[in-house]
Recover the amino acids of this structure.
């Protein structure tokens, strides 16, 4: 049986691996390594021709994983990703058209924001959970801490430039539910198909994040 899908993407795991799959044949062993390491939520970005096949393979063959689609920037992509088996959607930004497509998809979603005005606009539309991107470049933990005062109802998954040293600082914030990152997927390990190393890095990330959470 597949892992149950919670109503909130932010509650899937403290760290969501952001995965770029170049070869769909790597998708299943990569996902298994991440899940064994304690990171079951996997965001496969729609940046490569192999992405939809990768989502389809993970959804069909890795029951311990909860696979989602990232870099969703068009309504068509939202539909294609869900049809392939994506169980959540993540976008780097949003428009009303894209937001409605994600809302209509039937799966949880995180529209991307980087300014207070974007957060307020989403709150007006009934959306309280968002991706904060690009996290480090957009102001990092200081910016998110500043948003918590006037906009406490918004919760975030910061992504972009986050690593094992900075992840605990983000996870300690009251308005952060999880972080996204790719540090557990170094390019040389993926190229060498060293899934044991990926699993070890995932386990370290999961342990680091769990210990850092202040809820």
């Amino acid at each position: 049986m597949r892992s149950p899908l919670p109503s909130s993407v932010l509650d899937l795991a403290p760290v969501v691996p952001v995965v770029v799959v170049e070869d769909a044949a790597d998708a299943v062993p990569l996902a298994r390594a991440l899940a064994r390491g304690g990171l079951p939520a996997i965001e496969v970005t729609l940046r490569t021709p192999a992405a939809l096949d990768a989502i389809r393979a993970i959804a069909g063959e890795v029951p311990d994983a909860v696979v989602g689609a990232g870099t969703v920037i068009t309504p068509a992509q939202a539909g294609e990703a869900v049809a392939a088996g994506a169980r959540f959607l993540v976008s780097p930004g949003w428009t009303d058209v894209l937001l409605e497509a994600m809302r209509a998809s039937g799966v949880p979603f995180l529209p991307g924001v980087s300014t207070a005005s974007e957060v307020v606009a989403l709150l007006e539309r009934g959306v309280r959970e968002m991706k904060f991107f690009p996290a480090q470049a957009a102001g990092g933990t200081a910016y998110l801490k500043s948003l918590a005062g006037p906009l406490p109802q918004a919760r975030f998954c910061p992504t972009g430039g986050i690593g094992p040293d900075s992840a605990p600082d983000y996870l300690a914030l009251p308005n952060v539910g999880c972080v996204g990152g790719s540090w557990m997927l170094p390019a040389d390990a993926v190229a060498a198909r060293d899934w044991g190393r990926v699993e070890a890095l995932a386990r370290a990330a999961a342990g680091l994040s769990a210990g850092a959470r202040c809820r």
